[in-house]
Amino acid sequence: TQYIYNFGGGSADGRTDMRNLLGGKGANLAEMASLGLPVPPGFTITTEVCTAFYDNNRQYPEGLKDAVDKALERVESIVERKFGDAEKPLLVSVRSGARASMPGMMDTVLNLGLNKETVKGLAALAGDERFAYDSYRRFIQMYSNVVLQMDHHSFEEILDTYKDDRDYVLDTDLTAADWQAVIVKYEAAVQAELGKPFPQDVHEQLWGAIDAVFGSWMNDRSKTYRRLNAIPEDWGTAVNVQAMVFGNMGDTSATGVAFTRDPSTGENHYYGEFLVNAQGEDVVAGIRTPQNLTIAGRQRQGNEDPSLEEVMPETFKELTAIFQTLENHYRDMQDIEFTIQEGKLWMLQTRNGKRTAKAALKIAVDLAEEGKISEEEAVLRVNPAALDQLLHPSLDPKATRDLLTKGLPASPGAASGKVVFTADEAERLANDGQKVILVRTETSPEDIHGMHAAVGIVTARGGMTSHAAVVARGMGRPCVCGAAEVRIDKAGTAFTVSGRTVSAGDQITLDGATGEVFFGAVKTIEPELSGDFAKLMVWADKARRMKVRANAETPLDAKTARGFGAEGIGLCRTEHMFFDAERITVVRQMILARDATERKAALDKLLPFQRDDFRELFTVMRGLPVTVRLLDPPLHEFLPHTDKEIEEVAQGSGIAVDQLKARAKDLAEQNPMLGHRGCRLGVTFPEIYEMQVRAILEAACEVAAETGDAVVPEIMVPLVSMKKELAFLKSRIDAVATEVFADKGRILDYLVGTMVELPRAALIADEIAEEAAFFSFGTNDLTQTTYGLSRDDSGAFMPFYIREGLVETDPFVSLDPKGVGALVEIGAERGRQTRADIKLGICGEHGGDPASISICERIGLDYVSCSPYRVPIARLAAAQASL
Ligand code: ADP
Ligand code: MG
Ligand code: MG
């Protein structure tokens, strides 16, 4: 096997696509050398050597040493210097380079090969003693820190004291003699701490550095980083050994970093910084303030210092020509490191540059319009999850802010408003035209109207999948959850946080993308949904196979969803329509009814409310399919809790308070999630579903009559686990339909189907499909029931599972491909066996998660459905999944 790949001197053994073997840095150095760009010659020791090293009890493979010697000779002959030579010494850098860039790995060692003898040779060659001793002291400092693991403070202290004693301010104030004196002190420090002198043998130095790179693969920092980023241990790192070039040889030398486009905005202008007479990481280290690359760049920043364009115009031209070459070659924005040695330009690194979501979008669209990449590639270049940041208002980066506390970033977007502590108060003030932020210890379904009325929500308890988080994401309300320091006082008039008190009516601002909560109003900026965003969406829609629908029940959410390109509603949860203040009492009367007559009386009052809701919703969605789920949640969610609530219900229904209390007690369940809910309610109280179906179909007929454009209602029965449940309900639904159509003198298309959300339903999907015209996989409940894991209680242990690496991601956030995904696949397959054209979709949180969407594409579902604000994300993710 080949352990070593050479580069530089006009050719290279490696290529960009060999990144697994050569690491990112090595592969790109080789590619640049092949392109004929000025790359200092060197070689890469492969990642396979790293793997072999660990497989073989930290022994290098036989022959590696000879191969390194040979590769070093090649470099020596190209640059006409010799490693360790007293007269013409070759110096090298030793650079780590894994496949994926990995903080925590060994830092680069520069100027390796210097010792008491070679430093003199370097001084003579350069005709500059100061430069040579400066380089040597840098080397001692870096090598001692990185390879010998000494604290760099020891050296900084020596240098600071030396400068203070002589009233020096800048490092450039030190002369050659000064550096020699500092070196003596550095060497003494090494001797004192390690009990042996700084290594003078250049081969010992080289192998020390190589050992340190390979050793750093298994240090704690690297291991942690790999675990958090799911990088396998057996990837290994490569080591790059490369001839040094010097940016610290006086005023015609410099070192810098650059991006071929602006990494924060995506603007097509060069963006970068450099330092004259400097080396390596001086630019990032912030010792001196770096200068801008371009005139335009320094003007943008109001920087007076001359740019590279002004200081070294010729080199600048050469450099920017290389920017173009590299960008055209890699067909992406590049992040570049370069050094200028006495006017000669050298390229030290290139890679696809990291960028903000905004920049990613702009760069992808621009590159496609410039004809450098195809529209499909542009679609693949933008991370759908990152779009989330772009679809919501964000805090003005220039605005001043006063941080109160931080919780979980539960639902993105930024909002300012007055603090309120109850849902009713939120609704009252919102109706008054005020902006409010609802602050709760936690939220429950009864708070939904208040969450809707608020511009943002903060909770003290609860995780990323808590009620507040799920509902807020669904509504597109910014939300910070689990802000654990927030304590709401008993009276509910104020909260305290880190010693400060915030009262009802005070202004606060939250940023749901970061989890931060601020005191006062912070200026926000609106998202830009036209332009690049719109263009990318058009390209995504061309590539996409699956349809994208939204989960929505209010006309407002439905409008938002249509605006974001939803092609129907995949889940309208009718119970959300029940929590409205005017109706909840009637709903409670219905639930607490002692017999069918009482129930019927309450249902008759509810029917017009429901019909009006559907009329509004169907008007917004006309021309598109709308899936309406019949009543689903456990009844306890609607039961009155307080005496006041019980009294209200008693008054409205004429039932005695005591009787009501007894009835509420009867209805209490041990395990409501697995109790009397879903179609089980429909089976035991058929009149509830009959009322809902009537409301749906009457509304559909009326909207069709008014607009001439009908929705196709898809009536969805929840929580089915047997064919007979669905058969029982379907015959009643069809009977109501016949009645309604006769009344209205109009026949409409409608479908009856079911939510597949119990493992048994997935397993006997072939039977259920005999009754169901469509399946919508309810993966929230399917995850709960497949894992036997309560979503509302998993917050107590799921974070530990994630931290300890037992699960990669919360299965409520990203669909579990092995278990839950398998059930979806089985359900889809068996459903199609019975009914080839059965409509298949997914609703619930997973429908807006890119990884889950790609599983849905693989299974061949017809559509995904997600909250309105995630519709663009789902459109992009679905497009990527089909490419
Ligand atoms: P990182 O991965 O932290 O960026 P690098 O290996 O890229 O580490 O090295 C950091 C910096 O060191 C480079 O940007 C460059 O300025 C300098 N450097 C590395 N190798 C050389 C070299 N052969 N000659 C001159 N400078 C070098
Ligand atoms: Mg570094
Ligand atoms: Mg680098």
TrEMBL record:
<keyword id="KW-0067">ATP-binding</keyword>
<dbReference type="InterPro" id="IPR000121">
    <property type="entry name" value="PEP_util_C"/>
</dbReference>
<dbReference type="InterPro" id="IPR015813">
    <property type="entry name" value="Pyrv/PenolPyrv_kinase-like_dom"/>
</dbReference>
<feature type="active site" description="Proton donor">
    <location>
        <position position="843"/>
    </location>
</feature>
<feature type="domain" description="PEP-utilising enzyme mobile">
    <location>
        <begin position="435"/>
        <end position="515"/>
    </location>
</feature>
<keyword id="KW-0808">Transferase</keyword>
<feature type="binding site">
    <location>
        <position position="779"/>
    </location>
    <ligand>
        <name>substrate</name>
    </ligand>
</feature>
<feature type="domain" description="Pyruvate phosphate dikinase AMP/ATP-binding">
    <location>
        <begin position="65"/>
        <end position="301"/>
    </location>
</feature>
<feature type="binding site">
    <location>
        <position position="781"/>
    </location>
    <ligand>
        <name>substrate</name>
    </ligand>
</feature>
<feature type="binding site">
    <location>
        <position position="573"/>
    </location>
    <ligand>
        <name>substrate</name>
    </ligand>
</feature>
<protein>
    <recommendedName>
        <fullName>Pyruvate, phosphate dikinase</fullName>
        <ecNumber>2.7.9.1</ecNumber>
    </recommendedName>
</protein>
<comment type="function">
    <text>Catalyzes the reversible phosphorylation of pyruvate and phosphate.</text>
</comment>
<keyword id="KW-0670">Pyruvate</keyword>
<dbReference type="GO" id="GO:0005524">
    <property type="term" value="F:ATP binding"/>
</dbReference>
<dbReference type="GO" id="GO:0046872">
    <property type="term" value="F:metal ion binding"/>
</dbReference>
<comment type="similarity">
    <text>Belongs to the PEP-utilizing enzyme family.</text>
</comment>
<dbReference type="Pfam" id="PF00391">
    <property type="entry name" value="PEP-utilizers"/>
</dbReference>
<feature type="binding site">
    <location>
        <position position="757"/>
    </location>
    <ligand>
        <name>Mg(2+)</name>
    </ligand>
</feature>
<dbReference type="InterPro" id="IPR018274">
    <property type="entry name" value="PEP_util_AS"/>
</dbReference>
<feature type="binding site">
    <location>
        <position position="781"/>
    </location>
    <ligand>
        <name>Mg(2+)</name>
    </ligand>
</feature>
<dbReference type="InterPro" id="IPR008279">
    <property type="entry name" value="PEP-util_enz_mobile_dom"/>
</dbReference>
<dbReference type="InterPro" id="IPR010121">
    <property type="entry name" value="Pyruvate_phosphate_dikinase"/>
</dbReference>
<dbReference type="InterPro" id="IPR002192">
    <property type="entry name" value="PPDK_AMP/ATP-bd"/>
</dbReference>
<feature type="binding site">
    <location>
        <position position="780"/>
    </location>
    <ligand>
        <name>substrate</name>
    </ligand>
</feature>
<feature type="active site" description="Tele-phosphohistidine intermediate">
    <location>
        <position position="467"/>
    </location>
</feature>
<dbReference type="InterPro" id="IPR013815">
    <property type="entry name" value="ATP_grasp_subdomain_1"/>
</dbReference>
<feature type="domain" description="PEP-utilising enzyme C-terminal">
    <location>
        <begin position="530"/>
        <end position="881"/>
    </location>
</feature>
<feature type="binding site">
    <location>
        <position position="629"/>
    </location>
    <ligand>
        <name>substrate</name>
    </ligand>
</feature>
<dbReference type="InterPro" id="IPR036637">
    <property type="entry name" value="Phosphohistidine_dom_sf"/>
</dbReference>
<feature type="binding site">
    <location>
        <position position="757"/>
    </location>
    <ligand>
        <name>substrate</name>
    </ligand>
</feature>
<dbReference type="Pfam" id="PF02896">
    <property type="entry name" value="PEP-utilizers_C"/>
</dbReference>
<keyword id="KW-0418">Kinase</keyword>
<keyword id="KW-0460">Magnesium</keyword>
<dbReference type="GO" id="GO:0050242">
    <property type="term" value="F:pyruvate, phosphate dikinase activity"/>
</dbReference>
<dbReference type="InterPro" id="IPR040442">
    <property type="entry name" value="Pyrv_kinase-like_dom_sf"/>
</dbReference>
<feature type="domain" description="Pyruvate phosphate dikinase AMP/ATP-binding">
    <location>
        <begin position="312"/>
        <end position="367"/>
    </location>
</feature>
<feature type="binding site">
    <location>
        <position position="778"/>
    </location>
    <ligand>
        <name>substrate</name>
    </ligand>
</feature>
<keyword id="KW-0547">Nucleotide-binding</keyword>
<dbReference type="GO" id="GO:0016301">
    <property type="term" value="F:kinase activity"/>
</dbReference>
<keyword id="KW-0479">Metal-binding</keyword>
<dbReference type="Pfam" id="PF01326">
    <property type="entry name" value="PPDK_N"/>
</dbReference>
